[in-house]
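cache lookup: miss for this entity combination. No prior model stored, computing from scratch. Input as submitted by user K.M.:
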Amino acid sequence: MAALGDCSEHKHCASPGQPRGSAPVSSWEEGRELAGGDGRVCSQLCACCWNGARGPRLPAAPDFAVDRLSGLAGSQLRGGVRGGGGQWAGCPGNAESDPAQGLSRADWEAGAFRGARGRGRPPVRTAPGGGAAGPHASSRSSRRGGSVVPRLRSALAMKPTFSLRLRIFNLNCWAIPYLSKHRGDRMKRLGDFLNMESFDLALLEEVWSEQDFQYLRQKLLPTYPAAHYFSSGVIGSGLCVFSKHPIQEFTQHVYTLNGYPYMIHHGDWFCGKAVGLLVLHLSGLVLNVYVTHLHAEYNRQKDIYLTHRVAQAWELAQFIHHTSKKADVVLLCGDLNLHPKDLGCRLLKEWTGLHDAYLETQDFKGSEEGCTMLPENCYVNQRELEPFPFGIRIDYVLYKAVSGFYISCKTLRTTTGRDPHSGTPLSDHEALMATLCVRHIPPQHTPSPTHGLAERSRLVSILKEAWIELDLGVAQARWWTTFAGYVIGLGLLLLALLCALAAGGGVREVAILLWTPSVGLLLGAGAVYIFHMQEAKGLSGARAELQHVLGRAREAQDLGLESQPALLLGQQEGDGTEEQ
Amino acid sequence: MAALGDCSEHKHCASPGQPRGSAPVSSWEEGRELAGGDGRVCSQLCACCWNGARGPRLPAAPDFAVDRLSGLAGSQLRGGVRGGGGQWAGCPGNAESDPAQGLSRADWEAGAFRGARGRGRPPVRTAPGGGAAGPHASSRSSRRGGSVVPRLRSALAMKPTFSLRLRIFNLNCWAIPYLSKHRGDRMKRLGDFLNMESFDLALLEEVWSEQDFQYLRQKLLPTYPAAHYFSSGVIGSGLCVFSKHPIQEFTQHVYTLNGYPYMIHHGDWFCGKAVGLLVLHLSGLVLNVYVTHLHAEYNRQKDIYLTHRVAQAWELAQFIHHTSKKADVVLLCGDLNLHPKDLGCRLLKEWTGLHDAYLETQDFKGSEEGCTMLPENCYVNQRELEPFPFGIRIDYVLYKAVSGFYISCKTLRTTTGRDPHSGTPLSDHEALMATLCVRHIPPQHTPSPTHGLAERSRLVSILKEAWIELDLGVAQARWWTTFAGYVIGLGLLLLALLCALAAGGGVREVAILLWTPSVGLLLGAGAVYIFHMQEAKGLSGARAELQHVLGRAREAQDLGLESQPALLLGQQEGDGTEEQ
């Protein structure tokens, strides 16, 4: 396995000892020359080399040149607030704050991706704007407390040339103590990679051990001063976040339903699966970031957790809907354990209005079909992926902008199941790396009324489908409670019989021997009764919410307000999303 | 026990057969004459007679006359939108929509309250406004779907003469199937009372049986067309709501921590205590209504659930904080199981900025000190109330207005532990009946900076206190997990020993006999381990949130921003409340 440390072998990474932020790259040509010009192999796990061993390098695509030409810090403010002059060119990169990152991104572009799928669309060059802001301009301003930044909104974010760029990293880390292979090594390499790439936000799932989080926290402290681990369940939610920018607020919502405690071998119940919310103030914008991990799907053909996952997706959608009413940008990352066409995924997207980075991005590079669990990954259970030769896509970056803003996914990258050096990837899932750009909506933008009609019909149909699924779930949960009730009755009868036999002699020893299993049966049935009753109540709650929404949709239809589905179906003024 | 039906004995209630809304009362004098003039005793449970048996009637207070003079529907729009002319006099009553209600309210005023405490302040007569709106003006407009009403805000709610009146009812119903005395009768009388009073919103707790909810739903349907029961836990959250106005949206949040399942005799764990959220659109305003019920306090001297209740109060405060960012009016009702000076109550009020109706009202009538559990109540366990001769105040109506609005509690009434006729009250708790009035903030209103400093210091001190409480809770939960771990080890050893003894003969029978308790011990210890580990994680999550808030307060202090505590401590622009 390759040793990890400062990159000294490859010219495209910052020179050893050279401080971050000291080597701005001034042109795409220079970047290309540095990226692949020396022909040497990097021993680091920077994104540039992730798939370097897979094939010949390609020339860097011109759309990355646009990014690198600007040489600015990520998620920084544009609009002449802290500087003047300069040409605005889309959402600029943050090469100035971390040159290695800018270079490695270019090399990503230049590198070969085994099975990579590109959907390059040139970025839209919009109106020229103000000058470049200094690195961390936004973080400096947002550090001044909770409401200072929103107060600046009128002055900063309201400028017509406003632009904010965000680089996001998401990975399900598969870090189960004692069970996950090469956990320590993978955590170390993940830390090195995140430090080198210097994303705005790194959102991680399945960091089950708080020791692993503390290790990463220490390691990432210089690059990501803010971090948080979401504690819940018996083991912990596994969710954590590292941020380059200060976190203004955070909270969490633990899902009401999350499997059954008696399914110990699956273990999801013990994790206390949840959604974590972070509120960030960047350049005068309020950014609500959600990170989550839904219940796993263990058997797609006979999925006993389908209803729970649909209920979780609805709970997640409702949590986002109710907590993001004043946010300008909403971002959801995580392992949803849902395929793109699964009911839960469609429900979540339609109800919240979130857009899928993979489907919307101008420029995608990575695994075939954007899959995040690949057969090529040595940690993946190959048998589980047999029906899916390309793998499955269950990890997502979803986003929307509200209140007059527009968000687009400029680039999306995934890892592709292998590390060129050690041969072992960072996890059994693939990482997602998205570059998002927030701008003002062009004044001429008006949503199409026909789109509204189609949207409404799709939403209503999905809501109905979810209602039916939850209704079936309620019926099944009730069946289990009835069954458990009968077993409790039988168990009590058996226990009474055994007591009588033990008192009467004869088969006394056998009777006493059978006490333990009969008491166990009684307790087990009691537990099953309790858990399924809880399940029935939880599902009923979610079903009632869906029913209410459907009822309102019907009311709206009666009133002939078909053209505004999102508005009619619970989303408030300003909560509607724009066409991406 | 008196029979319940249409009030035919007492002139102050609408005549039998007379439809609701058909008998507007035009003056206070008339009301007074009707209220007590005939000297007969009403057999109904209208508010007027609630305490009628307690003493001689007093003349109706003039401030109620102001209400009744206007003769308008509750929570209706003022400002000339649907009518013209007429004098505006504070927030008008809804006598026109339900004359019986106007009368009974006046009679409440006129009736004698045993131990009643009055803090009458005359209502502020502000600028004259537009004419009277028709009954249900607001509900008619808000029925037109989710976003129609907010869109009207600029036209309606933005008028300087805008005024909205809300009549709220809250009661912990103590309706435990098979356990609560006279449950059926009390439910029936509650339904009659709610129908007669025609509140805008009736929020109920401890309606544990969904059958009871369905019974009330049927009974209240003509007066309260919208209703919802919040399902959760094994038994149900017990929370439900009846509304005269359409409910736009609802959702719920189940508390992460809620006692222990092995404390079966207390039973709170099985209830799945939660907070329910309703979003209503009234007269162009967005109204977020929360109803909740926190873990009970069984022993104040040795309260093993104190930490859970503090964690629940924090979770509730955070839920309100994050979900009400776009609401104009926030209302929280429920049984908090917290005394006014308890840490949880102070934490909730300070963090959310909610105001206590009892402390803020212009006019209070009811129990001494506003208590909601009284020794006079025949259902109350007298031993529990021994240290509190006047009773305890644990049920609340809390509110705030944001975005340039001002909310005040015009009147607050409580029942006082007895029904004059049957002698049995509606519940072991007392009902709260509040009349709230929403108006625009006067333009000259500016918060005092010195108040800001004091507020900040109080908030920080409460947050620290809560942090310490949760920290102690985490330590105790960890102690229990360690203890349970040792017991599991011992249980395993014991089981192995018993197996060896059983195999060796001699005391075989005894060994087999001991199997059951040792397996039980093992399972029990395992359950204790799991529940306390879950507790530790849950408390750690809440403690981390508090720590973050305190850290931000410190940062703010360093930056010398002491004068804006609410803004610095996580509350966003426009989320600050006004002086009530």
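stored under new cache key. The domain at 163-442 of chain A is CATH 3.60.10.10 (Deoxyribonuclease I; Chain A).
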